[in-house]
Amino acid sequence: MYRVHLMPSGAAFEVSAHQTVLQGALEADVPFPNRCQIGACASCLCRLVEGDVRYHLEPMLTEQEKEQGWIFACQAIPCSDLVVSFEESDDY
Ligand code: FES
């Protein structure tokens, strides 16, 4: 199990090594934006602040978006504890 912290809400939940970040949030009754759950709508897009994720199928992100830490929560499987942010950043 890995622990995921959401910013700025501070909500936290656990995700098993085979679940996506979104599945973990929904199972823990933590509100998480989502619609299609198949990596198509981008509702679940958020930024990885700390930690690593992997994908069964790489989502369509540009190199720049990957560098900025954007992940598709409905596709991303944690490889470590994570901190994930929905805050807009002024850095980019
Ligand atoms: S919920 Fe649609 S891309 Fe993740």
CATH H-level superfamily title: Beta-grasp domain
Number of strands: 7
Bound molecules: FE2/S2 (inorganic) cluster
Kindly state the percentage of residues in helix: 10-25%
Whole-angstrom Rg: 12 Å
- By CATH, the architecture is named Roll
Low-pLDDT windows of residues: none
Instruction: Give the topology string: H per helix, E per strand.
Output: EEHEEHEEE
CATH class term: Alpha Beta
Number of helices: 2
Rounded mean pLDDT score: 93
> What is the CATH third-level topology name?
Ubiquitin-like (UB roll)
Query: How much strand content do the residues show?
Result: 25-35%
Counting structural domains, the number is 1
Description:
- This protein is α+β, with helices and mostly antiparallel strands.
- It has one domain (2-85): Ubiquitin-like (UB roll) (Roll).
- Helices cover 13% and strands 29% of the residues.
- It is built from two helices and seven strands, in the order E-E-H-E-E-H-E-E-E.
- It has helices at 21-27, 63-67; strands spanning 2-7, 12-15, 45-50, 53-54, 70-72, 77-78, 82-85.
- Strands 2-1-7-3-5 form a five-stranded mixed beta sheet. The chain has a two-stranded antiparallel ribbon with strand order 4-6.
- A hairpin with a 4-residue loop joins strand 1 and strand 2.
- The longest helix is centred in the N-terminal third of the chain and has 7 residues, at 21-27.
- It is globular and about 30 Å long.
- The protein starts with a strand and ends in a 7-residue tail after the last strand.
- The structure holds FE2/S2 (inorganic) cluster (FES).
- Residues 34-37, 39-44, 72, 74 line the site of FE2/S2 (inorganic) cluster.
